Amino acid sequence: MVTLGTLRLACRFVCIGLAFWLSTPALAGSPAPAGDDPYLWLEDIHADRSMDWVKAQNAITTKQFMQTPDFARTSDRINEVLDSDARVPTVNRLGDRLYNFWKDKAHPAGVWRSTTLEEYRKAVPAWDGLIDIDALNQAENAHWVFKGADCMKPNYQRCLVSLSPGGGDAVEVREFDIPTKSFVKDGFRIPVAKTYAAWIDGDRLFVATDFGPGSMTVSGYPRIVKEWQRGTPLSTAQVVYEGATTDKEVSASRDRTPGYERDLVSVRKDFFHYETYLRKDGKLLRMEVPTDAATEVKREWLLIKTRSPWTVGGTTYMTGTLLATKFDDFMAGKRDFVVLFKPDAHSALREWNWTRHGVILEEMVDVQSQLVVLTPQAGEWKSEPLPSAPALSTISVVGTDPDVSDEYWLDTEGFLTPSTLQRGVLGDSKLETVKQQPAFFDASQFRVSQHFAVSKAGTRVPYFEVDPKGMKLNGSSPTLEIGYGGFNASVQPFYDASVGRSWLERGGVYVIANIRGGGEYGPDWHNSAVQSNRHRSFEDFAAITQDLVKRGVTSPKHLGARGASNGGLLVGNMLTQYPQLFGAISCELPLLDMKRYSHLAAGAASMAEFGNPDTSDWDFMRSFSPYHNVKAGVHYPPVLFYTTTSDDRVGPVQARKMAAKMQGMGLKNVWFYENLEGGHSSGANNQQSATKQALTYTFLWDQLK
After folding, report:
1. Is the peptide bond preceding residue 154 cis, with omega within 30 degrees of 0?
2. Would you say residue 31 has pLDDT above 50?
3. Average of per-residue pLDDT across 72-94
4. Which residue is catalytic, options 162, 396, 455, 565?
């Protein structure tokens, strides 16, 4: 892990949703009829012509916004936070040690390290370095980005380390030995690809990767999972399961919990539908649950969270319900469930986390946090509350030790409240505050509130607002509205020092929109805005915008919108459908060409969310394809498109083409910037992340002040 603040900041609106692997130019964009799209040539990502265009655009944007004292000051202040030793290093427990991945000025690419709980409690812990990525890059003349490690239970001495060239999702997997702090000579090693690898035992792995032509789905994920024996070529690994090319992805894992060892095969049909199989005695036994349900097998238990109503055993369970049953009983045909969580009009289940003897539920009530601990027992499980977050804040379970103990770690944060990391043990009412991040900006001059706007169809849509105390409601405040609204992802209050230093301290207002398409009110909130109902997300965002103006917070010329990935599609539609409501838009790592998106990078993996443009779905998809709805002669607000060359989820193509098309129409104030590294995030290191954030805030403030 990295740190509480930077991890959530990096993934808040970007990591949610799409995931993909791009390995060859052919996957960068499927052929299209010549002349259909005059900017199709920009889909050849690394071609000289494309990169020359990118360099020219970067030079223009750099000169306008990145060669000013304001940009330099903003970038330095953001980077000061990202490199600060005062940040809270988030840890995950592996056996008797705590592990962390850390970036700072001395380690821009980062270092994977570990320590003990006793040391971690100290103000300045002593860390044991395991992999110094900067040193590795120097030794190998490479640009590796650390993407995590899977260490084998119960000793956690051998790990599968994932390294990405340039920060994309494609990784090389290497076997690493913790006691010797070295990669294992002649150990397991899988070439760069979109790969899933998991330990079976010390000499065997489950591997789903690119095994050659025909081994990947149309989405670019592995469709074949194999069992690989140490000391043998990967090419000779034995097939465990072979999915269809139309599946999204296939993977397998072994639960190594003593007494509950199981092999499970997961077939992801699309973004929201799964089939799960128990592999037993060489046979695959399907778990007969709805394909859209989320499931988890833990020790003797099977947990099922419904995404649509499910009638089983004579009972109908509503959408968003969490059920529990004995796994072996379920596989034997019994259908006796205990309801662990039942939603209502104001509540939803965000996630759950096991400890050794209990389950901690993270619930949301009108997008605000509360925690409940459940203890398994005969009949209805025992339920007790855990400490809840202060009003307008978020409390999250960031770590547990489910195989050994009832230890849990909580993080509490808010828009104006830095992260506090606490450790507890179920059964003990005491919570130990282990780490507390200092404030990186003066929050005393601001306030947080929650409001509800009424969308076009009458739906009440919540949003959070952070503004200066004593702000005059005369419509003059520069205001930044952020949104995502997709893939069942929820956005709750979080501490972002970059926002504080770069926006709030200048006198700006900051707004988070909890629009449909997200998961703030459970699966129905998401389901109500997919495919042909996608317009509801945009209507919700526009309703919040209009409510801000109605309340006197701001006015269109002072109001900006920002979104990344699916949020980029959101603000792209604000640009083309509601240009009169905004003074500027920052559109980052976006989907924009919804006719071609399923042939670009991760698009085919997300058709369950948006639709298939190669079918009659295009009849409704065209209405939310910004690339097809932008028109010459219309007055659009200034817009900045930001992307990265190494993004292998959404890819850089759509941002490129949209900027080129708008400029080709003679539209003014269309800016573009493309970072070479970073993948589908802010950057490969803290400096790149600071540069991206500083560019965004400098651009927006320049337009909205």
Report:
1. yes
2. no
3. 96
4. 565
Exactly one of 107, 526, 599, 680 is catalytic; which is it? 680
User: What's the structural domain count of the chain?
Assistant: 2
680 is catalytic: yes
477 given a catalytic annotation:
no
Q: Are residues 470 and 502 in the same domain?
A: yes
**Quick one: average pLDDT of 234-260?**
96
Quick check: 677 pLDDT over 90?
A: no
Which pLDDT score is estimated for 35? 52
**8 Å CB contact between 555 and 476:** yes
Decide: 501 and 446 in contact? Cβ < 8 Å: no
Look up the CATH number of the domain holding residue 476: 3.40.50.1820
Percent of the chain with pLDDT over 90: 90
Judge contact between 160 and 197, C-beta under 8 A. Answer: yes
Looking at 190, 220, 246, the residue that finishes a domain is 190
Q: Are residues 48 and 72 in the same domain?
A: no
- Coil vs helix vs strand at 197: strand
For residues 602 and 525, membership in a common domain is answered with yes
Q: Please give the residue range of the domain that contains residue 565.
A: 4-52+447-678+698-704
How does DSSP assign 576-606, residue by residue? HH-GGG-SEEEEES----TTTGGGSTTGGGG
> Half-sphere exposure of 140 toward its Cβ, with a 13 Å CA cutoff?
12
Backbone φ and ψ for 351, nearest 5 degrees, come out as -165, 175
Q: What is the pLDDT of residues 606-662, one digit of tens each?
A: 999 999 999 999 999 999 999 999 999 999 999 999 999 988 888 899 999 999 999
